[in-house]
Amino acid sequence: MTGKTFAEKQLSEKSGRDVRAGDYVEADIDVAMAHDITGPLAFRTFDEVTDGEGSLFAPEQTVFTIDHHAPADGVQAANNHNALREFAAEHGAHQYDVGDGICHQVLVEEGHVGPGDLVIGADSHSTSYGGLGAFGTGVGSTDLGTALATGELWFRVPETKRFEVEGDLPDAVYAKDLILKFIGDVGFAGCTYMAAEYGGSTIEDLPIHERFVLTNMAIEMGGKAGIVEPDERTARYLEAETGSPPDIDVEDPALHSDSDAEYEAVHRYRAEEIAPQVSVPSNPENAVDIGEVEGTAVDQLFVGTCTNGRFEDMQVVADIIEGEELPPDVRMVVVPASGAVYQKMLETGVLTTFVDAGAVVQSAGCGPCAGYHQGVLGDGDVCLATANRNFPGREGSMDSEVYLASPATVGASALYGEITDPRRVETKRFDDVALAQGARP
């Protein structure tokens, strides 16, 4: 019999059974998460399951964040915020408030997630946690509400599709370009209910903040999970970020696919052949080399989201636009992924760089990514964003257009007011561990 993939190993361990792709299991949950949009419905399900008298399966492993409508943009949003606060206080769960940041960033920064964890979140981009070598996946509020009471959830063990990249990335090409290329090649449904596993020397060389970009957008291929196997870089990152090393051996074979594991497919790439990518409206799968859209005029630039709202992303853009001003009639909205990112932007002068250029820097959270507030688009507006989705109406008007790209591409485009190849400017690549340890950018 062939070896096992990471996904097969993890769901075997969490279910206590020897399982393979296609099997159904009930697995023990390590971490459960909801935010201000999905939490209230999950709480109603929890109360129904427990007759209003239950307790959380593990309060210390349950996390709620206020990040989507943060700050509240209306009475209903404010009431949802209060519902999270009250439920968390009543049941002893961790709860992060307005300005603390996006769930997927906060759970990592605060040490709630580590390699080998099975993490469920009532948010589709919960695949992000695979950047640490966890099995993270999004679930509906009803499933989450039940799991909050039982600590278990059923899964179909997913097949795995592997994306393997060898070589050194060219200047101005980042993980965002890789994932857009992958999605463009396999399509929006090309990895439906599969684990997207990323490997090869290029992936091994990526800093952790860029690995998160790959796993975050696994869902844009339909993925059940996104996986980058943990390594010593993962361990160093966690120690720098949280102050303590992971309590698991990142070299444990249980956290790595076997060399003879069976994959649904393997897609292979040479890094030096990858050009900066842009996903054109209105689907992430519409990825093209930047030369096909260079010169497209934009009305708004958006830097942020759980995909590319980390400090290193902000630094990439700030280095490009430092000392410059946005072109007339072009606006830039900047939303850090967490309060910690915001603070580091303040301390390093990155925030000042954005403000001096004419950008609007807002409190940490999801911002206009889901089209709620803090910079939504009007009819006819064209936006270039570091976000993850560009469906019609995703960031506002159904008659607006959203292009997706890397922070470097957004930064270069901010100089000219049109989509611009980042290879035309000087770009940098940052080591997140060094920055966390206080190195100067």
Automatic annotation (TrEMBL):
Residues 24-417 form the Aconitase/3-isopropylmalate dehydratase large subunit alpha/beta/alpha domain. Signal peptide: none annotated. Catalyzes the isomerization between 2-isopropylmalate and 3-isopropylmalate, via the formation of 2-isopropylmaleate. It comes from Halomarina salina. Keywords: 4Fe-4S, Amino-acid biosynthesis, Branched-chain amino acid biosynthesis, Iron, Iron-sulfur, Leucine biosynthesis, Lyase, Metal-binding. Its EC number is 4.2.1.33. This is 3-isopropylmalate dehydratase large subunit. Pfam families: Aconitase. Heterodimer of LeuC and LeuD. Pathway: Amino-acid biosynthesis; L-leucine biosynthesis; L-leucine from 3-methyl-2-oxobutanoate: step 2/4. GO terms for molecular function: 3-isopropylmalate dehydratase activity; 4 iron, 4 sulfur cluster binding; metal ion binding.
